[in-house]
Amino acid sequence: MTGEIVPLTNADLNVVSRDFNHLLKRDNNHDIAGEFPNFVKKCVQGEANVRDALSRARESISPGRTEMFIVFSGVYAVGLSVVTNDVEAPRDVGNPDWPNLSGFVCHPFRGRGLGRLSIEKRMEVVDDNFGGKAWTLVRDGNAVSEHLVTSAGFKRVSSDNQKIDNRHLYTYSKDSIE
User: Staple partner for 64: which of 17, 45, 116, 129, CB 3.0–4.6 Å?
Assistant: First the structure.
């Protein structure tokens, strides 16, 4: 299967709604609810709720402010990628205007390089539209996500004593990796 990252504005909401509704009900995707509780709650309540949530999300998209993408594996919508500065930054972020990166890929599509493809797209957006600065949080013990963000140029800021809701803060500055 091949992967593709499609802007939410170009995605077929019927396909995305059907696939998210199905995938986010799976027991092995319950970890996603910890990071996206409101979205997952809507997704498992039916395709119409997913479509409604995605339609509202489309309305909030504004380059350089909030950008969203759907992760596809072949014809299936299997994940979501978000870059936004509509989230309050933790105090240790260099500048409160830096955007937050978040996203997920559902089982059984994990481990196929889709997370890498997703973060590469988000980093391109950060560099092009957000001044090459960003932050993200990674749940303590999530070695896969930690490796993914550090390989994209993020540096861990928080120590074990400074965790935010059992997550570590990572920041990215294009200037510091060139």
Answer: 129
